Task: structure prediction
Amino acid sequence: MDAAGEIEVLIRARYPVLYLVSWEERRVEQALDSICKTLNRKLFVWSLTQGMKPEIRGSTGSTQRLELEGLIQIHDAPDGSVVILKDFHAFLKDNTVVRLLRDLAEKLRGRAVTVVILAPVLQLPVELEKDITVIEFPLPGKPDIEAKLNDVIQTMKDNCKVDTSLGDEERERLIKAGQGLTMDEIESCFARSLVEHKKFDISVVIEEKQQIIRKSGLLEFYPAEHRLEDVGGHDMLKDWLLKRRSALTDKARGFGIPTPKGLLILGVQGCGKSLIAKAVSAAWNLPLLKLDVGRIFGSLVGQSEENMRKAIRVAEGVAPCILWADELEKGFGGMNASGDSGTSQRVLATFLSWMQEKTKPVFMIATANDVTKLPPELLRKGRFDEIFFVDLPGDSERATIFEIHLKKRKREPKDFNLKKLAKLTEGFSGAEIEQVVIASLFVAFDAGRDLSQADLEGEAKAQVPLSKMMEIEINELREWAKVRARPSAKTEE
Result:
């Protein structure tokens, strides 16, 4: 049963006070108006600025407080009334309002009068918990978005200046992208897309979601600036990701494929774990949100747990999307240490429960450098679809990485001996190879000439890779990954 159906049942069952949690006043009011017409009831709407519309009776002038006057009027509401109180949560901290609502709930019990508190957040005093029924009025679902899209197409079909044609796959992606937005936001996105691009463009919807993420303050939005082609090597991991690019679609559900949970990428620092996470966003054409665990922890009691729940709600609100948690061990490492009164364990428990039970299309990509610091619960089967180990690049991969970074800096790779550079940089990570190219460009620029093979070879010989400084740690990580993780690339002999 949907929210509108549940509200209709509760009104018919003569529940005295309902609390609807929603940002969408217009949509909720339209739904309640439709319910009232079906049940032959009269709808009244109260707000602090407009008062009661229409008036139930004239003001007595007995109080100067409009919220109290509104509740007093409801006492005289005729049978068959439904009264909406907009943003009334702001007054529920007042003892007089709470007492009046409790009296009203008692008086209306059994009568055909229902009071509906409409607010964007749930703020319910403990005194009212047994008198009020709370209903989450969800954001528009796929049928609602599709109906709105059809309305826009029908309205604009005779406008030769815009192209409203959509293929089946493009249509599904646009509807899915609209999930997590209010109906007003969806309507505005469609209108802006047609005005700005003369066609329906999914990027406009993603930009609107970017605004939601910014307002949360807990997640960061990353634009799709990198492609999987920009990642050197890791062919097995890239192939795994490309095969799952349509895994969040209805077609995949119909085929029997469950919603994918996520991916954990372990490996040596600087080998492209973060770059892969960013590249998936472009490959799957989904917004990428970064979860910074450091922002989750707050100083007040219960704030950290609420921040984690809020971050999860925001991610689910803009789904389908990719949620990226970088260097996970720094956020959840050392969980056995005492000193935070169990806050870290409670935050982790909330995170793990969501990962295990989530139903919304949020694909989790977590990266980590030091697996020994990760809580064992995170590595249990069922948390992630797969665990990949990212090792140092082999010879051919290093040559490809040189090619990518030379092209990125407007140099022609065929002008350089990439095989020789790959041999000279054995044990180098992708990030260290990038630094070799950048440092060589500085040398050439200072000398007033173009980049040469000698510049690159000189920098390659001068740099000391991390693999030499942390040889023991890297070997231990490789041994751990041999039987517990899947390699991101085929091992080169």
